[in-house]
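User: Can you help me understand a structure? I only have the sequence.
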Amino acid sequence: MRYEPPLAGHVPERERHVRSLLESGRREQARHAFDAVLRDGPNRVDPRWNRTTVLIHRALLALRLDRMRAAVELVAEGWTELDSPEPGTRPAAETLSVLGHVVEGIGHHESALELMALSVRIARDDGDDNTLAHCLTREGTCRMLRATGDPDTAAADFTTAHEQLEEAIRRGRRSELMRRRAIVADARALAGLGQPEAAADRARQALQLDPSGGDRYTVSLANWAFATAARQREAREDARTYASRALAAAEQIRDTTLMVSCSLDLARICEELHDPVGEAAALRRTVRANQFVADMFREGLGQALEQRRVAVQAQRTASAARAAASRDSLTGLLNRRGLEHRAPALLALGEQQARQSWLVLLDVDGFKDINDRAGHSAGDLALQQVASLVRNECRSEDLACRWAGDEFVLLLLDNAEEDRGAGPAVAERVRRVVAEHDWGLVLGSRTRPPTVSIGVAAGLPRLQELFAAADGALYRAKAAGRNRVEVERAAER
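Assistant: Let's start by predicting it. Here is the structure, written out as C-alpha cells:
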C-alpha cells in the first residue's frame, strides 16, 4: 500500500513545539528546542512526513531565531526537493506558501506575493479545503500588510485580502490556529477598509479563540486593529494604548514586519496627540526593527533566496503556462478546455461513490444592456463579480467554469450521506447572491443590475448529456421571466 503523507500544513510535534514557544514569546526556550530538532542533522526528516514541507517550516523557524546560515541551507534544500518531479500538489502548495512567508519576512513583498498566489492556485486545483485555507490566509495576510504601507494599492489590496481571508475562515474548519490567524488578519483588513466596528468585532472574536493570550501574534494584530479602529473614531488616547500593546507583543515574538508597522502607527498617533516624547520613542523602535532586517540581508539570506528563485524560474513559468491554458484570463475560473479536461475525473468519482452528478448552467440576464449602457470595461467587471460570487458558493472539489461570454457552468457532486439535491440548492444560492449583490460600485445607478437565469440537470455521468439537459432548463428559465432556477433530469439510457 502506497504511503500517503500527512495533510499539508501539518509538521512533526517537535517543530510545532518550537513554533508554540516562539508565538508565546519564550525565545530562549525555543532556541534550545530548535537545537534539539537539528541535533540529528538539519536536513534529516522522518519519512512519515513530507520532506519539502518540513524543511521549509524549519527554515522559517531558523529565520525567526536569527539562525541565518541554517535558514539559507534549509530553504535551499527544501526548494531543491520541490524541484524534483511530481512532489505532490498539497506539499507543493504548502511549501510555496511558507516559502513566500519567509521571503516576506525579509522584505521581498512582491516575490512573496508571487509565491503565495501560485500556492493558492495549486491548492485550489488540488481540492483540499484545509490546504487552501492555509494558503489563502498567508496570501491574504501578506496583501493586508502590503496595503498598510502602500497608499497607492491600499484599497485594492485590503479588498482582496478581506475576500481571501473570509474564504479561509469559511473553509478552514480543521485548524483552530489557522482560523484564528485568518480572523485576526481580517480584522486589520476591515479596519483598512474603514469599517471600525466590524474590525473590532473580528479582533475580539480572534482573542476569544485564544483565551490564555499565549499567541502573541494574535494579540499584536488584534490590538493593531483596535488601534486603527479607535483612531478612525478619533479616540486617539485609546488608539495609543492599543498601538503600544500591539508593538510590545510584536517585539516579544520579534516579528519585524509587525514591529515596523505598529511602531510607525504608534508614532503617527503620538504626533496627532502632540506627544513628541512618545513619537520619538516609537520612531527609535522603528529604526531598531529596520536594522534587524538590514542585518539579515548582510547575512546573505536575501541573496541566497534570490539565487534559488532564479534557478527554478523556468520550471515555475512552465507550470504557470500549463495552468493558464486551462483558466479564463478575465475571471480566473476554468475555461471550456479546463472543464472538459477535469470533468471526467469528477464524474468518475461520483459514479464510483454513488454520488449524484449535477451540472448548473447560468446565463447573465441583460448583459448586452450592461455593455451598451455602461461600457465593455464595466461589463468585464460585472463578469468578474459574478465569477467571484459563484466561486464563493462552491466547495473546493466543485468545478466552476466560464463557458463562453456571459455563460458559466458548475459541475458538482452530491454528498453521499446527505439529500441528493446539491445542484438546485447551489443554483438557488448563486441566483440569490447575484440578485442581492450591491452593483452600484461597478455599474453606477443608471444601469439595471444583472441577475442570472439558471438551468440545472442531473443524470448519467456524461458531460454532453448533462449539458444538453441543463441547456433546456436554462431556456425555460429565460422564457419564464428570468432571474429563476429551472431543474431537469437528464435522460438515462
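Now, to help you interpret it: The chain has two domains: 13-204+281-311, 327-489. Confidence is low (pLDDT under 50) at residues 1-9. Let me know which part you'd like to focus on.
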